[in-house]
Amino acid sequence: MRVAVVTAPEQVDLREEPVPEVGPDDVLVRVGRTGMCTMERRLYLGTKPIYPVAPGHEVAGEVVAVGRAVAGLPGVAAVGDTVTVDLLTRCGTCTSCRRGRSALCKQPQGGALADGTISMGAGFAEFVKVKALQAFRTGSAPIAHAAMGEPLACVAHSARLGGLRAGDRVAVIGAGFMGRLHLALARFKGAASVGLIDISEERLAEARAAGADWTSTPEQAAETGGRQDVVFVTAGAPGALESALSLCDDGGTVVLFGAFPKEVLAEVGPDLIHHHELSVVGVYSQEPRDWTEAAAIIGSGRLAADLDALVTATYPLADVDAAFRLAAKSPVYRVLVGG
Ligand SMILES: [Zn+2]
Ligand SMILES: [Zn+2]
């Protein structure tokens, strides 16, 4: 089978690789679509120079084989099912996994291709193999929607750790792909209102078209949207934590979802957090229950219009290079590969 390997900045090869062998508790998935996330952009542009590397962790496809130990078990996908797949290793043994926080598994992540090339998903390929418990059925949803299983699971994790409840007033800082998924999920979960905050007028206009109740530049947000119960920060810019806290009503929560540059520091008054019972929650990655939720929501079709609007372009695997080039340029929502 073919698999895409980034060998140097802006260099992508399609290599031949044996089709993975299916163990007793695995499923083999013929890849239908794979999304380009921030990690792929960093590897391609050389801001995260790890070479050679086989990226691609947002994968959906059709199950073509099921291991004998798990075939037919309730909840396990069958041959022919469309699934979205979790490619994180969750050891189940470390302190994080034992506490039910497998998003933070301490086991080093990632495997390798047959020739030793580092795999960070290796999802720009014809097949992937995963444990059956890491393949989640998405029913009759389009394959492009199923390929958003991983980012939507991250957003479900974000909503869960942020304590989002129906009736909450929600603001989302950053109207890129992840901000828009937060908008879609918060509306789905019954938020009273969802506002999006960004510096790009174009992105704000697109967020309004996608159903945002209000949009604003960072400077105008307090005036436009008023006090909030949950503020999701999907764009880790300097000052974002401070503005998110200033938007919170009493008892509000700030969720730090997007990565911040390591050198960014924040000046926060502990008394503000104390007196107003504010919470600041860090969110990174996702866990199996978030996958279950994301796959079910995708399968329900209730977010179909939201997910459709987030597909910027789709390229066949043979043109994976062009997909990397487009995704490396801002602004895109999701560039998909496959088909
Ligand atoms: Zn991702
Ligand atoms: Zn672990």
TrEMBL record:
Transmembrane segments: none annotated. The keyword Oxidoreductase applies. Keywords: Metal-binding, Oxidoreductase, Zinc. The keyword Signal does not apply. One of its GO terms (molecular function) is oxidoreductase activity. It catalyses: 2-deoxy-scyllo-inosamine + NAD(+) = 3-amino-2,3-dideoxy-scyllo-inosose + NADH + H(+); 2-deoxy-scyllo-inosamine + NADP(+) = 3-amino-2,3-dideoxy-scyllo-inosose + NADPH + H(+). This is 2-deoxy-scyllo-inosamine dehydrogenase. It comes from Embleya hyalina.
